[in-house]
Amino acid sequence: MNILKNFFVSLKEIFIILIIQYSILIFTLLIFSKNNSITLGTIFLMLFEIIYIIKNRKTINFSFSINNVYFPYILLGTSISIIYNMILYKFNLYTPLDNNISILLIILASGVVGPIFEELIFRINFISRLEMFISDKRIIVLLSSLIFALCHTNIINIVVAFIVGIINSYIYIRYRSAIKIFLVHIFVNIMSSFIFKYNIYIFLLGIILLGISILILIKNRKN
Description:
This protein has one domain (2-222). The radius of gyration is 18 Å and the shape is globular. The protein has nine helices and no strands. By secondary structure, the chain is mostly helical. The mean pLDDT is 92.
């Protein structure tokens, strides 16, 4: 019973953040025109995320070591993005973004600031809270990934968010490296901005990159 109570208490910050984010979106929709509200809503959300990141900067381990190999995490994020988007295009499941939003704003908000913000909430902060009353790392990985996935909007995004959540939760628990999980998530999101249609060769490239990244990570783990 105490574990369940502690779990819901640990969700408090996530609930508050979701309420603030939806309030920002509703506010912009009510105050501004439809065309402007999307762009302004994105900007206001990004500003809120930046403020949150700055406020919680002391909890982020930004330590960088030349002995660490970061490239496979870039490959991992890139490969997940390619495979995910190719599947969407192949089965006509892709939902195009609003053309009124600048591609630079999309890359900055969804490709850089958003991933750092989400990793801070759902991995760095949330996992730290779960570890206070749950000792089984597998349960922590599952719970943090499930909550992260459920905060997304549709079944397709929920599935890929759950997969990314599992991967980054494991990486964070094992290495306590913010940079590694930031890189994975950033390249999952940012690569989506550069994929516009299905291509079998790009799909195969994604699979190859995934294999290479996994092999490098396994090799580094053994070392």
